[in-house]
Each structure stands twice: as C-alpha cells, then as structure tokens.
C-alpha cells in the first residue's frame, strides 16, 4: 500500500530546513507532527524529599536541554545561586550551546562530549576528584548509572522532571499510513490513549533498539527501522520505504 500520510510523534521542527520538510516535498507525502509525550517539572517540595543539597556538588552532568532547564529552574526555586566555578559536563554540543541560555559560556568550565554518554564518560574520568550531580527525568537509560559507577566517582542523581503521556483523544478518528516513534514512552502513550489500537494497514516506523523492543512487545509489526548502515536517520529510512511502496 502506498504512503500518503505520516504522523511523527515529536514536536514540529523549529527550522525550515528540516529533512522532514524536504522529504514531504520530494515524495509528495503529508507529514504531521504531534508530541505523544511531554515533560513536567517536579516542584521544589518534591525535589527536597530526595535529600539532595546542590551546594555539595562541584560538577553537573547534563544529558539534555530538559536537564539544563530544570536544573536552573530548581536552583532558582530553592534560592540557590549556582557558583561561577561550577563545572558542567555536557553530553553533546547542542546541550552545551543551550547552556548559554543560563551562563556566560566563555567564563565557565564546560566540557563537551561527542553525542554519546560513553564519550562523555571519558571526560568525566579525567576529573575524578569532583563531586558530580546528574539532573534527570524519572526515566533514565541504565547505561548512564552503570557507566558512572564504573568510573568509581562520587556522584548522585536527582530527578527534576518526569515524562508524561500527552492527551491524544482528538486523534481518535484520524488515520495515518505511517506512525513514527523514537522512544518506548511514545509506544506507551499510543496504547494508553488508545487501548484498543489495531495496527491493520498502518505502518510503524521505529528509531533505536529500545523502541523496536517496546513496539514488538506491544504486538506491533515494525515496518521501518532506523538507524541502519544504509539509513542512519529516520528520514532516510522513511524515504527508502516510500520509494519502494509508492512506485508500485
């Protein structure tokens, strides 16, 4: 069956040069965007219950822009002035760049990984004398605490925000040829919103092994998978699939 419509379970891109827009124009398909999950910050009252005193830490590990936002939000709510000599270990350049929203970049000690946490761990290892704090959501990939424990460093995790299922009730009678997922949470959201969901002729596109596992466990057939050596991005995987089925 041909593909005419696609729903991506993420917010719409903020830039006009997104590969999704190029894919839509090139393959003549309609692509919509909708967050299946969203983030909610924990109030200071709940954070205090975790018995974490930010003043005890000399370095912050930041794995996402959400972590950046909620670290500085909670610091403000707790009336804690982040010291100028605080060190920041950012998982990617995008996270480090986003940090400029809160600190004067050139005056801070900022260490940047190359996208993966394994790469960031190498930088953290060089600063073993620091006391690290990891701001995170309620859902954290096991590899992160495992990697930090292997380094034998002093570190603690503080949960500052949680991943919440979005209300998708307005999509109940809307059907797409392809649904695109990037996390197990997105799969959870689909079935929490639509417990009786039947895949039928809907194609499911998934990114990453954990998402593939969640989809198959939920009884879905994964028609489009990324990343692969041939299709390292989701848009490339979608384009390859669309070319195959739409030429028939």
Set down the secondary structure blueprint.
Layout: E1 5-8, H1 19-27, E2 30-33, E3 37-41, H2 44-48, E4 59-62, H3 65-77, E5 87-90, H4 93-99, E6 109-112, H5 117-125, E7 131-137, H6 143-150, E8 154-165, E9 178-181, H7 184-193, E10 203-207, H8 209-217, E11 222-226, H9 234-246
Parallel strand pairs: 1-2, 1-9, 4-5, 4-7, 5-6, 7-8, 9-10, 10-11
Antiparallel strand pairs: 3-8
Helix pairs in contact: 1-9, 7-8
Task: Describe it.
This protein is α/β, with parallel strands linked by helices and 248 residues long. The protein has helices at 19-27, 44-48, 65-77, 93-99, 117-125, 143-150, 184-193, 209-217, 234-246, and strands spanning 5-8, 30-33, 37-41, 59-62, 87-90, 109-112, 131-137, 154-165, 178-181, 203-207, 222-226. The protein folds into 2 domains: 5-36 and 167-246, 3-Layer(aba) Sandwich (Rossmann fold); 40-163, Rossmann fold, CATH 3.40.50. Helix content is 33%, strand content 23%. Helix 7 packs parallel to helix 8.
Notable characteristics:
six-stranded mixed sheet; Rossmann fold; 9 helices; five-stranded parallel sheet; 248 residues; single chain; alpha/beta
Distance between the termini: 8 Å
Shape: elongated
- What portion of residues is helical? 25-40%
Number of domains as seen in the coordinates: 2
Broad structural category: alpha/beta
Average pLDDT rating: 94
Compressed to H and E, one letter per element, the order equals: EHEEHEHEHEHEHEEHEHEH
Largest sheet strand order:
3-8-7-4-5-6
| CATH fold topology of the largest domain | Rossmann fold
Specify the CATH architecture of the largest domain. Answer: 3-Layer(aba) Sandwich
- Individual helix count: 9
- Strand proportion, as a percent range, falls in 15-25%
Summarize the biggest pleated sheet: 6 strands, mixed
């Amino acid at each position: 069956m041909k593909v005419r419509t696609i729903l991506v379970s993420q917010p719409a891109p903020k830039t006009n040069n997104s590969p999704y827009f190029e894919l839509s124009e090139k393959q003549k398909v309609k692509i919509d965007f909708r967050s299946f999950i969203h983030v909610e910050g924990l109030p200071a009252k709940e954070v205090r219950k975790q018995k974490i005193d930010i003043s005890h830490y000399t370095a912050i590990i930041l794995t996402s822009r959400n972590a950046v936002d909620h670290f500085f939000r909670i610091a403000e709510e707790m009336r804690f002035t982040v010291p100028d000599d605080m060190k920041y270990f950012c998982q990617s350049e995008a996270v480090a760049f986003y940090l400029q929203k809160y600190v004067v970049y050139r005056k801070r000690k900022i260490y940047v990984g190359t996208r993966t946490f394994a790469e960031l761990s190498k930088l953290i290892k060089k600063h073993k004398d620091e006391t690290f704090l990891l701001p995170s959501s309620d859902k954290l990939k096991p590899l992160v605490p495992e990697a930090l424990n292997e380094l034998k460093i002093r570190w603690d995790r503080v949960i500052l925000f949680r991943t919440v299922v979005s209300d998708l009730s307005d999509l109940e009678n809307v059907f797409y040829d392809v649904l695109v997922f990037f996390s197990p949470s997105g799969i959870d959201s689909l079935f929490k919103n639509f417990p009786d969901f039947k895949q039928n002729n809907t194609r499911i596109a998934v990114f990453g092994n954990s998402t593939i596992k969640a989809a198959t466990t939920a009884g879905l057939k994964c028609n489009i998978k990324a990343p692969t050596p041939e299709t390292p991005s989701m848009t490339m995987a979608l384009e390859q699939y669309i070319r195959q089925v739409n030429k028939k």
